Amino acid sequence: MSVRELVVLGTASQVPTRHRNHNGYLLRWDGEGILFDPGEGTQRQMLRAGVAAHDLNRICVTHFHGDHSLGLAGVIQRVNLDRVPHEITAHYPRSGQRFYDRLRHATAYRETVALTEAPVDADGPLAVTPSYTLEARRLSHPVESYGYRLTEPDGRRMLPERLAAHGIQGPDVGRIQRDGALGGVPLEAVSEVRRGQRFAFVMDTRLCPGVHALAEGCDLLVIESTFLDEDEALAEEHGHLTAGQAARVARDAGVRHLVLTHFSQRYGDPEEFERQARAAGFEAELTVAHDLQRVPVPKRR
Ligand SMILES: [Zn+2]
User: Fold this and answer.
1) Does 116 lie in the same domain as 174?
2) Same domain? 205 vs 188
């Protein structure tokens, strides 16, 4: 059984607090690990969360503010120290190439890993694998910022009672799946569409078309809610979202599990984010993230 889950490494915006590390999130998706926005301290948070350097296949950075990228220096050196045997691909805004270069070469170390640079400079697909398509969407923040989305291809779910009604059994089930038809019976007659799962990572941004496009129909949405609703003017000014704004996006997009994170240090009570998200009309599963939490991608419907 393949594992699809989010491992929360850190949840603080701007500066870490006593209870929250800078941002950092690992998505386990089948055999792959995708690290999003490694802020300062990510290397140690990985250790605490049971994430090894070998678990990383891809790194996605939304933008080059420190709470989303300072951890690159440590993580990159660690994968090299541990001699990770597979290729690792890094995505980040091309406009921040100079920041990426500095973080990658922040100090001296021995390079042992094939680290591929795949910068982003437009909306669209970045990678296609058998289990997902990764795409980027431009967000709205004072520095160029991109959100990321994984979409699993749709598959087909075989329907045992329909197979039985057509007398299809044993190796013939594999044949009709492979060939699309068997003895005049089309595959569609004995199966139904199994919708691919969808995940998105949205951070940092004010409301803009990219936010909605990334969130659309997500099984699991990780989205920043830096501010509470009473500070909406501040959020707009600094290019962030409030709890209520994030929740309304998720509600309108039909998100099944909403993860709020990237909290400003100005607030003490995380439950207020939940109250405001509920007040905004989001009724599905909701997590106000805390460090080292694991959030499974919801089971298929
Ligand atoms: Zn941030």
Assistant:
1) no
2) no
Closest CA to 210 of 136, 280, 284, 271: 136
Q: Which of 32, 30, 142, 150 is nearest to 93 (CA)?
A: 142
Q: Is 149 helix (H, G, I), strand (E, B) or coil?
A: strand
- Which residue, 14, 51, 10, is CA-closest to 293? 10
Catalytic residue among 37, 55, 67, 204: 67
Active site includes 123? Answer: no
Residue 262 Cα to ligand 1 midpoint, Å, equals 7
- Are 180 and 210 within one domain? no
Is 301 within a domain?
no
Question: What is the distance in A from the centroid of ligand 1 to the CA of 239?
Answer: 10
What is the block-wise mean pLDDT of the chain (301 residues), using blocks of 10 residues? Answer: 91 95 97 97 98 98 98 98 98 98 98 98 97 98 98 95 95 94 94 96 97 98 97 96 98 98 93 97 98 96 82
Helix and strand counts by DSSP (H, E) for the chain: 10, 18
